[in-house]
Design a protein that fits this description.
Shape: elongated
Number of strands: 7
CATH class of the largest domain: Alpha Beta
Largest sheet: 4 strands, antiparallel
CATH superfamily of the largest domain: Protein of unknown function (DUF541), domain 2
Mean pLDDT: 78
Structural class: alpha+beta
Helix content: 25-40%
Strand order of the largest sheet: 3-4-2-5
Length: 244
């Protein structure tokens, strides 16, 4: 009787083994299928839109030197007051004029291997003047030089409202990303699914700034200034789901 019971138990154990293997195989297949359904595709694309700038900011200033700090400051103040008056006469409103730098530095003599000694002082006073009328930029430069400006840092062009250009660049970027994703999915033998995530970045890609040539006021021509165009770019990073 005991022997019969042992044989029966052994048969039951053997019959249970395949069931356990089938369950494991079914579980593995489900996991693999789930991984395919959860596949993702990451693509990035950049769209561009060009627009002419409609705002200009000029950086200019006066550098003065004198034997004493007081004399250098007084001469600089005299010339800068004339610069402010010239800007207002050129139609630049006061709220668009900003002092961007003011410095007083001693000047040294390092000759003859001796300890450096102060030989005078230098004052640098720089302002930024902004105008929404680009036709005023040339005359403004001429007025600045006539008023005593001897240091022009450059012109920075910008766009006041770039919403429409940014919207166009964004639409182009998304369309490019979609085309790229479809091509990649087709090549991989899968179907493109829904969008899971979109992230955006971007900015301006300005053209090289124009070179300036300030002419003397005895010439009856104004300083030519060309604004050109600025390119606004938007980059999108999109995550798509993939379907088998």
């Amino acid at each position: 009787m005991k022997k019969f019971i042992l044989i029966t138990a052994s048969i039951l154990a053997m019959s249970c083994s395949p069931v356990s293997n089938q369950t494991a195989s079914a579980h593995d297949g489900s996991a693999a299928h789930e991984t395919i359904n959860q596949g993702k595709l990451y693509v990035s694309a950049t769209g561009h839109a060009a627009q002419a700038p409609d705002r200009a900011s000029v950086s200019a200033g006066v550098v003065t030197q004198a034997p004493t700090a007081g004399a250098a400051m007084r001469e600089n103040a005299r010339q800068m007051n004339a610069v402010f008056k010239a800007l207002k006469a050129a139609g630049i409103v006061e709220r668009n004029i900003t002092t961007s730098q003011m410095s007083l530095q001693p000047q040294y003599d390092y000759q003859n291997r001796k300890a450096p000694r102060i030989t005078g002082y230098e004052v640098r006073n720089t302002l930024s003047a902004m105008s929404d009328d680009l036709d005023k930029v040339g005359p403004m430069l001429d007025a600045l030089v006539s008023a005593g400006v001897n240091n022009i840092g450059g012109i920075n062009f910008s766009i006041k409202d770039a919403k429409s250009a940014r919207a166009k660049a964004r639409m182009d970027a998304i369309a490019l990303a979609r085309t790229k994703a479809e091509n990649m999915a087709k090549a991989a033998g899968v179907r493109l699914g829904k969008v899971l995530e979109i992230r955006e970045g971007g900015g301006y890609t300005p053209r090289p700034q124009p070179m300036m040539m300030v002419k003397s006021m005895d010439m009856m021509e104004s300083t030519p200034v060309a604004a050109g165009e600025q390119t606004l770019s938007v980059t999108v990073n999109i995550t798509y789901a993939l379907e088998q």
